[in-house]
Specification:
The protein is mainly alpha-helical. Helix content is 74%, strand content 2%. Strands 1-2 form a two-stranded antiparallel sheet.
Length: 357
């Protein structure tokens, strides 16, 4: 069942991005975006997918109840009495209304209609956020999760449409005039909202690297650094004419982050790492790379070892190759590969550097 949610969560995020991004673009004048060849079925299918993929965590929690309470519960009772089920019902209700609204109105000929649909799409985001882990901890956690999710959906959604259904030959300059500041605002929002959520979910960032959740969070942050490099290249270095291959490669990195995020959702958040380690062992990955027995009462510090130095040198080498690749405007897909190799070597260099304090 955990594998089911690990698969459905990234697909859910992509569905939301396609809905929000598609409605956002539909609400803009044609002269402010490149020509787009979007299949008519994509938007309604993405809206319906929100319901389908949103069922993943609902089914997981519902199937887990008998193992905890020794009592079974009907799916309807779960949907109406559990926060996860209530959030899914609210989202499904919103999906039905949005589909009816789009069926009765043409968002491609009426920008106000498209804008109203976008506002309703934000309601779908909020209803999904209602059952998030951040929302269960504090009201601020709810809103931080919502704005984090909204910023990702706007930035990534627009990027998906432009990269896979657009053209860089027409109106590229007018598109970048608004998309560059919009993407910068979204990235800043993602960063700030992420910092707030970390205070609730992973306040002991360094110590959390001893647990699977913290390691995945570190990988996510390293991947985010690669995304920033792609964003800088696309927004400034290739600003005049753009490159669909570089935009598409950037979307692949975002998908990798969404996969990691989906996997993180199935791990125990490290609120108090040292307390958690008194009941569970360190992560299997860290146990594989470490050469010492870890005392659960010790905290994490970093120090150079022969292995970490070697990996750090390899990481630096991949980083320098990325700079050269951008300067020479080589293949975006090889740059993507270099970025993934940089993430892997940087991650392992950090793991091999961990020592107790």
């Amino acid at each position: 069942m955990m594998m089911l949610v690990t698969i459905t969560e990234p697909l859910l995020y992509i569905s939301y991005a396609l809905v929000i991004g598609g409605l956002f673009l539909a609400s803009l004048p044609e002269q402010k975006k490149p020509p787009l060849s979007i299949p008519n079925w994509l938007l309604p299918t993405s809206i319906i997918s929100i319901c389908l993929f949103g069922l993943g965590p609902v089914i997981q929690v519902w199937s887990f109840i008998p193992t905890v309470t020794k009592n079974s519960i009907s799916i309807w009772s779960f949907l109406t009495e559990n926060t996860q089920g209530q959030a899914w019902l609210a989202t499904t209700f919103g999906v039905i209304l949005l589909l009816l609204f789009l069926w009765m109105n043409d968002i491609h000929t009426s920008r106000p209609t498209a804008f109203l649909s976008l506002v309703w799409g934000m309601y779908l985001l909020l209803s999904n956020t209602w059952a998030s882990h951040g929302a269960s901890l504090a009201t601020l956690g709810l809103w931080a999760t919502f704005f984090h999710f909204l910023a990702v959906s706007i930035w990534f959604g627009i990027l998906l449409y432009i990269a896979w259904f657009g053209s860089t030959s027409e109106r590229w300059g007018s598109f970048l005039k608004w998309y560059t500041p919009t993407s910068i605002a979204c990235i800043i929002t993602i960063f700030l909202a992420g910092l707030i959520l970390m205070q609730y979910i992973a306040p002991e960032y360094w110590n959390s690297w001893l647990l699977p959740y913290g390691e995945a969070l570190l990988i996510k942050h390293l991947l985010f650094a690669v995304i920033l490099s792609f964003a800088i290249v696309n927004a400034f270095w290739l600003r005049k004419k753009g490159s669909l291959s570089w935009l598409r490669a950037e979307t692949i990195i975002v998908v990798l982050i969404l996969i990691v995020t989906g996997w993180m959702g199935q791990q125990e958040p490290p609120h108090e790492v040292l307390t958690t380690l008194q009941y569970v062992p360190v992560s299997p990955l860290f146990e594989t790379v470490t050469t010492q027995d870890w005392n659960p009462l010790k905290e994490v510090t970093l120090s150079w070892t022969s292995s970490s130095i070697l990996l750090a040198v390899m990481s630096l080498g991949f980083f320098l190759l990325m700079i050269v690749w951008v300067y020479q405007k080589r293949s975006a897909w090889l740059y993507l590969l270099l970025g993934v190799l940089w993430v892997c070597t940087s991650f392992l260099a950090i793991l091999f550097s961990i020592t107790p304090r």
